[in-house]
Design a protein that fits this description.
The protein is of the alpha+beta class and 84 residues long. The chain contains 1 helix and 5 strands; from the N terminus they run βββββα. It is elongated, with a radius of gyration of 15 Å.
Length: 84
């Protein structure tokens, strides 16, 4: 199983060594991500990222649903690790 995390494209960087890259924001963190699989991605678009590669574009509503589920999983994980 792989986990793709949604992020918002904030800046397209162009090609580096023949691969397209962009700066993608994840909850305030900005990372350089390969966007060669989604060359149509533009600033403001949401992309699903796995292992540093944007694998598809998704709409903002789907990105928010996924991020909410990830937040809920993180909260459940924190509760399960608390010592009574």
């Amino acid at each position: 199983m792989c986990l793709g995390v949604p992020g918002r494209v904030s800046e397209c960087l162009g090609e580096i060594d023949g691969l397209a890259f962009a700066v993608v924001e994840f909850a305030g963190l900005h990372r350089r991500i390969c966007t060669s699989c989604v060359p149509e991605a533009a600033p403001g678009d949401y992309v699903l990222v796995h292992a540093g590669i944007a694998i598809t574009r998704i709409d903002a509503a789907e990105a928010e649903r996924t991020l909410q589920l990830l937040r809920e999983l993180g909260e459940a994980d924190q509760v399960s690790h608390e010592v009574p």
